[in-house]
Specification:
- It is a single chain.
- The chain is α/β, with parallel strands linked by helices.
- The protein has one domain: 3-Layer(aba) Sandwich (Rossmann fold).
- It is 33% helix and 27% strand.
- The protein contains seven helices and ten strands.
- The strands form two sheets. Strands 6-7-8-3-9-10 form a six-stranded mixed β-sheet. It has a four-stranded antiparallel β-sheet with strand order 2-1-4-5, covered by helices on one side.
- Helix 4 packs antiparallel against helix 5.
- The longest helix is centred in the last third of the chain and has 18 residues.
Length: 224
């Protein structure tokens, strides 16, 4: 593991069995991400970028190769250890906001603290994040009373509430109109620039990718 990398991927492969056929979703991927970088992985549907996302987040194991996240080797982790990685080291933002409809925005965020076994109070650093996201006055509202852009901001806050070293964002603007897409991308860039948050964003949109420090392209299971 390089001392300068927070994500280090070497010769990563992933093969799925579909009926009698082996499908290679990833074919020898190599990637290094340094702390504080904002990287966009750009590729069309079926290119392997979502598979890469799921492996980096500990959601699915690779077939071969190695992945180190914040100094930890995922290939030697138990299921419980990968769960802890998702609780404390990696935060997720998805295209679908995945907010619980019966809970307020505030409780959608607090429940992540509760599941991780942390006190549910928001510390000053997180209150700064809420201010940056501009949702302090919407925390008592349930998702149905929030716009799509506001729901995605709550989802970003939820992903950051446990102070993860890495934020993984999978098509975070996929359900938003152009105005809200730009607003969310600006917020991600601000989180990166002001707070030094490491962000890896999966996207098919070159315009969204332009908000990142660096972009890499994925095609047929390989980074090119």
């Amino acid at each position: 593991m390089s001392e300068t990398s927070i994500i280090e991927v070497r010769d990563l492969t992933k093969t799925y069995r579909v009926g009698d056929v082996d499908v290679e979703a990833l074919r020898g991927v190599n990637l290094d991400v340094t702390p504080g970088e904002f990287i966009a992985v750009v590729g069309s549907s079926g290119s392997g970028k979502s598979t890469l996302f799921n492996i980096l987040g500990g959601l699915t194991p690779p077939t071969g190769g190695s992945v180190h996240i914040n100094g930890k080797d995922l290939s030697h982790m138990s299921n419980a250890e990968r769960t802890n990685l998702r609780k404390d080291t990696v935060g997720f933002v998805f295209q679908k906001y995945n907010l619980l409809p019966t809970l307020s925005a505030e409780d959608n965020i607090r429940i992540v603290r509760y599941i991780a076994g942390h006190a549910t109070d928001f510390d000053p650093h997180f209150k700064e994040i809420l201010s940056l996201l501009g949702i302090e006055d919407r925390l008592k509202h349930k998702p149905r009373a929030l716009s799509g852009g506001q729901q995605q901001r709550v989802a970003i806050a939820r992903a950051l509430v446990n102070g993860p070293a890495i934020l993984l964002a999978d098509e975070p603007t996929g359900n938003l109109d152009s105005k809200n897409s730009t607003a969310v991308l600006n917020l991600l860039r601000d989180l990166n620039q002001r707070l030094g948050q490491t962000i890896l964003m999966i996207t098919h949109d070159e315009q969204a990718a332009a908000f990142a420090h660096r972009k890499v392209h994925m095609h047929d299971g390989q980074l090119i």
